[in-house]
Amino acid sequence: MKYSPLQAARYQYNPKLPQILREKIDTITLQVGAATAPATDNAAIKALFPHTYGLPAVTFTKGGDAAVGSRINVGVILSGGQAPGGHNVISGLYDALKNANPDSKLIGFKGGPSGILKNDTKEISKEFLAEFRNTGGFDIIGSGRTKLESEAQFAVCAEVCHKQGISALVIIGGDDSNTNAAVLAEYFLKTNAGISVIGCPKTIDGDLKNESIEISFGFDTATKTYSELIGNIARDANSAKKYWHFIRLMGRSASHIALECALQTQPNACLISEEVEQNQTTLKEIVEDLAKKVAARAAKGMNFGVVLIPEGVVEFIPEVKALIKELNDLLTKESVAYAKLSDWNTQSSFVAARLSTSAAEVFASLPVDIKKQLLMDRDPHGNVQVSRIETEKMLIEMVGALLSNMKQAGTYSGSFSALSHFFGYEGRCAFPSNFDSDYCYSLGYNAFLLIAYGCSGYISSVTNLTAPASEWKAGGIPITMMMNMEKRHGEQKPVIKKALVELEGKPFKYFKAHRDLWAIDTCFMYPGAIQYYGPAEICDIPTRTLELEHQK
Fold it and tell me: Which of 153, 199, 304, 470 has the highest local Cβ count within 10 Å?
């Protein structure tokens, strides 16, 4: 098989490890910390997780334990959407496993969690793994979104693991996947299944984080990939001087991607969903603010600019959020009658007649294409598919209409020509940055050590990430300490709490302090492509978010 020069070179890259993980594997020992507890809902979570609640945080230090060299079989699952670096988690897990005992086996479950339910496996060998090291994607064994959440499923998982001789399972996924890992670990302990479960923190959205999970893997690479594209567009805008670019970015629940890309590129405007929700900013106010920025730049002869928009912002705008809730309820209740309507006019009239007065007014104010997107097929839970709503096009049309009115009123004399973009899949399977290559390899290597020391219900934790990799700290934290209780499908469920953008945090405060300048002046930064070879200050740098969060 022929490879591109970069692909061939990346196969040969040796990821950096924390110093403690570079030691001979049987000279590393477990240091047990204090007992842990979740920030809220302690009693409810303790009742649901009696075997894994209150476990201590652990770190690795120099010592020695020959038991880590025991022969074991470990299963691994990739769960949920792709994120750069997943292959390196598996690479680190494999290398640690084989360093401890060459006869141990790593068995991948194909197609995500459904693979363990079907006993669909692929043994990971050195030769097979060689073509996936330091590359993007999850194609080594595939991924999926099947949830492991019922005792019937857990019993099948135990049966399959026993058939395969597997005594430990590593689940690589986001907040829901790691919640499922915690529930599965609890079941295995309750039933004395003899199978431990370790999670690894993955999501490009960046909303799986806390003091012990400083960043989820893939976020670094994805935001650098998007920022390169945004920088390229900004440079084109500054060259042509005639287009406004409205760019929607992934991030339904949290705006970490949009904020990081703003910090890297300094656009003229960037919406932050969490701020919109806190301030109860209306759609009208958002449109008016963007129009003012366009007009202010036009007054200085600059009829061009860049606007960043998190894909989930529509769910944070109060009147649109209320409209979406009504639509979800209405289309669930009236699904049979609505399904009989075949053309747009009758569908629109049917819906508008059944909405509350306030929701009907909001619905009427939206561009036709957005109305149609709001009425598209619902997701499996009966909710609008927010990721399919082209918010950037909605804002272009509404800002354009307001600017036309302003021109007629004599308060605006510029020209407004806008282009829309959506950056999502472009970043999910990119070649991982050096940071993600190193971080993910460390997470996988570390996960094996957690297994070797009998931990279960833990998530692999590597911290001190703004320091050189040799100074990173390795250990693990109980997943239960990250949980809270939330209402899901009408029931209170334990879930890992999503980490939203903190409006009092240093990254947002830096953005807020500079955005008025960026809005009117042309202050674009051009990050360029991810660099893999050269000075560490160019090739190994973490995200601006991480740098600012750890700034002293």
Answer: 199
